[in-house]
Design brief:
By secondary structure, this protein is mainly β. It has no helices and 4 strands.
Length: 66
């Protein structure tokens, strides 16, 4: 299973509700639908993922759901 990373230009301060986020290994743009303390919740075609952005942006954040 591959993990995914937030793009370098996206961080906790820059991320806002409604923002589009593109992952390095995906061509799709995910939409930020919710923000929590250390998490950003993203949605793409009814797939929802919680991404922890408290780690360095190039560190693997978590594994993709299969």
């Amino acid at each position: 299973m591959k993990g995914f990373q937030l793009p370098q230009r996206v961080n906790a301060g820059a991320t806002r509700i409604g923002q589009k986020v593109r992952f390095f290994h995906k061509k799709a743009l995910w939409t930020v639908i919710k923000k929590e303390s250390n998490w950003v919740v993203l949605e793409y075609r009814n797939i929802v993922k919680r991404v922890n952005y408290s780690f360095p942006l190039y560190q693997e954040l978590f594994d993709n759901l299969q």
